[in-house]
Design goal:
Two copies of one chain form a homodimer. Chain A is an alpha/beta fold. Helices cover about 45% and strands about 15% of the residues of chain A. Chain A has ten helices and eight strands. In chain A, strands 3-2-1-4-5-6-7-8 form an eight-stranded mixed beta sheet, sandwiched between helices. Chain A is elongated and about 65 Å long. The N and C termini of chain A lie far apart (about 45 Å). Chains A and B meet through helix 5, helix 6, helix 7, helix 8 and helix 9 of A and helix 5, helix 6, helix 7, helix 8 and helix 9 of B.
């Protein structure tokens, strides 16, 4: 059973916070939080009502599972010191773009637990609608990680490291870049004194549509209609926003190519 | 009351089809459909169980309201022949990007009824969650158009022509370009044999988030974190997709600028 595992969270950012709170709510025992910055460490530790440390040496040595959710650039540096003296434990990271093999030379039992979601500190996450992708060094570890993920969400998939880095790239387009399209839309409306709220029904319908139609079939608008007249007017409206104009041109062209 | 008005639909594309069906369902009398192409005209006419014509001369002369939902480039050509002999009627177009004044030299009573939504032939539209933007030549016409729009949706706003063309441009970003981000995401997943369905929870959450946070505050991902390491890896993965690579670069740069 997963809920008798003793878990240490390495990292105290958005992913560690939301994952930690959700696992604790499911009965898992979070025993400690580590973060390089005292402010983040203490904030999450307080949320979870557990101790924290800002020194890797002081990380508990007798946990069963270490969940590492730190910046990608930091992960490599953390691994050797973290694993040392804790060789029997299971180590996982949560980053979509980092291969499982980063653990290979240090750890014996390791894996990846990648929740493909957009986490903001300010917003509660409903994990029951998060897709999890898991990968592990062995069969026993895979079973445990699947069980852990399935305690949070019914949408648990296996994905190898190669698939996962494409998942992460695909998520950047579907989430981060999509959100930026919303942001550009909001900035245009703001300049005209129009409420962004008026755009929400269209945003919702655009998302709902691709539950039923493949996105390429769901495409509408001047680019796919090849309505040069409208596109020229739009580009003229963006003359004072050269970056937005360039984005408009590139995406429109790419819609027509696809 | 709007539901004793006799309405002619000029155009038989996605907007005319969905709007016509919705108005008829609300008790409005659609008396005729016009389209240049017989196939579209007859298809929509059959849906609505009304007569159709492919000749502007044969368009009914005694309707109260002519709703023109044709391609932007065609609108200007249609107006003079449509208004001639029907000078007492109210004429509206549904295009976000065309100013109301296109009617000025021909018609006496005119306006705009802009449903800001993405219409696909294959998908039913729930008009109760569509934002409508109306504008009219006079007070009486404005009241009638508001009433007509409010029979379909509670979200009815007034917007002048200048505001409306920015609305349309903003909608291209929030809907058409967003959908293209979904399409690029889907193409990446397909190449890895991964189901696009796994991306839907993330797409939904990305849309839900901006109901609570302004998009600029909701932004996550490698660009806003300035995680050059991840971005470099992503760009390397897109080497064989130069258009996608360029889009990745431009949007990431713009996220950092905003």
């Amino acid at each position: 059973m997963v809920n008798n595992k003793r878990i240490v969270l390495i990292g105290a950012g958005n992913v560690a916070t939301h994952l930690g709170l959700a696992l604790q709510a499911k009965g898992c025992e979070i025993v400690q939080v580590y973060s390089r910055t005292e402010e983040s460490a203490s904030e999450l530790a307080e949320h979870l009502q557990v101790p924290y440390t800002i020194s890797l040496v002081e990380v508990s040595v007798d946990a069963d599972l270490y969940i590492v959710a730190v910046k990608d650039a930091v992960l490599q540096d953390v691994i050797p010191s973290l694993v040392k003296g804790r060789e029997d434990a299971l180590f996982v990271h949560t980053a979509g773009s980092i291969p499982m093999d980063v653990w290979k030379t240090s750890a014996r039992r390791y894996g990846v637990l990648y929740p493909m979601q957009t986490f903001s500190k300010l917003r509660k996450v409903d994990f029951t609608s998060v897709s999890f992708f898991v990968e592990a060094s062995g069969c026993e570890e895979l079973v445990l990680l699947k069980e852990l993920a399935m305690s949070l969400s019914p949408k648990v998939y296996e994905a190898n490291s190669e698939q996962r880095r494409y998942l992460h790239l695909a998520a950047v387009f579907a989430c981060n870049f999509t959100n930026h399209m919303y942001a550009l839309s909001a900035s245009l409306l703001e300049k005209q004194g129009l409420p962004f709220d008026a755009m929400l029904p269209l945003i919702d319908e655009t998302a709902r549509k691709v539950h039923e139609l493949p996105p390429a079939q769901a495409q509408t608008g001047p680019a796919i209609r090849r309505d040069e007249n409208v596109m020229d007017k739009h580009l003229a409206m963006l003359l004072e926003e050269p970056s937005m104009k360039e984005i408009y041109e590139k995406i429109s062209k790419n819609i027509q190519e696809l």
